[in-house]
Write a structure and sequence with these properties.
By secondary structure, the protein is mainly β. Helices cover about 0% and strands about 45% of the residues. It has a single domain (about 5-105), classed as Rieske Iron-sulfur Protein, CATH 2.102.10. A 6-stranded antiparallel beta sheet has the order 1-9-8-4-3-2, with no helix packed on it. It has a 3-stranded antiparallel beta sheet with strand order 5-6-7, with no helix packed on it. A hairpin with a 2-residue loop joins strand 5 and strand 6. The protein is globular. About 35% of the residues are buried. It binds FE2/S2 (inorganic) cluster (FES). FE2/S2 (inorganic) cluster binds near residues 48, 51 and 70.
Length: about 110
């Protein structure tokens, strides 16, 4: 399998049940989330009013925005509670030699 283009973090940097915000040149920050050993990647910026989701907690596959309380699935990107009503963009993740690599073009 072809390695994805952008190194994001070491796998050990994102423990199960935890998240990590990662930044890249010319791209908005991305939130990595470890759900039961599977890494997901979504935009870190809440679609409601631009708060960082890395400030919130991860519960199962959902992350909470601390500013107004919306929850988002890190698997689907969809908000599950108002006030946010737009989904987060998602990114393809590949684990290679205990490293997390991303494709920074959002999944359609
Ligand atoms: S900024 Fe996230 S719910 Fe308002």
């Amino acid at each position: 399998m072809k390695k994805l283009t952008t190194f994001a973090a070491k796998l050990d940097d994102v423990a199960p049940g935890k998240t990590k915000k990662v930044c890249f040149p010319n791209h908005g920050p991305i939130l990595l989330a470890n759900v039961g050993g599977t890494i997901y990647a979504v935009d870190d910026t809440c679609t409601h009013e631009d708060s960082s989701l890395a400030l919130g907690c991860l519960r199962d596959d959902k992350v909470k925005c601390t500013l107004h309380g919306s929850w988002f699935s890190v698997v689907t990107g969809e908000p599950t509670d108002e006030p946010a009503d737009e989904p987060l963009q998602r990114y393809q993740v590949e684990i290679n030699n205990d490293e997390i690599w991303l494709n920074l073009t959002p999944i359609e």
